[in-house]
């Protein structure tokens, strides 16, 4: 084989590896964030208290549902 073919094979393998790695990493992170959301109810309650609001359970549940709905829309 000539040198040009080997260079083409190496470049093709690098591109395939980069694309495969990107999509595998993206899928892993989406699954991780779905299982471990970055904000939970306790964090939300503390943020609301720091902003001077008295958080009721109803308000916290509404905000968590809104955040989950936004997350699901972004995943689709």
Structural class: mainly alpha
Number of alpha- plus pi-helical segments:
3
Mean pLDDT over the residues: 89
As residue ranges, the low-confidence spans are none
Order of helices and strands: HHH
Assembly category: single chain
Largest sheet composition: none
What topology does this entry show?
Blueprint: H1 3-35, H2 41-50, H3 57-75
Descriptive notes:
This protein has 76 residues and is mostly helical. The protein folds into 2 domains: 1-36; 38-76. The protein has helices at residues 3-35, 41-50, 57-75.
Brief summary of the model shown:
With 76 residues, the protein is an all-alpha fold. 82% of the residues lie in helices and 0% in strands.
Top keywords for this entry?
76 residues, mainly alpha, 2 domains
């Amino acid at each position: 084989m000539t040198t040009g073919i080997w260079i083409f094979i190496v470049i093709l393998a690098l591109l395939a590896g980069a694309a495969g790695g990107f999509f595998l990493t993206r899928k892993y992170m989406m699954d991780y964030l779905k299982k471990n959301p970055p904000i939970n109810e306790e964090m939300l309650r503390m943020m609301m208290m720091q902003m001077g609001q008295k958080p009721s359970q109803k308000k916290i549940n509404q905000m968590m549902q809104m955040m989950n709905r936004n997350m699901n829309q972004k995943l689709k």
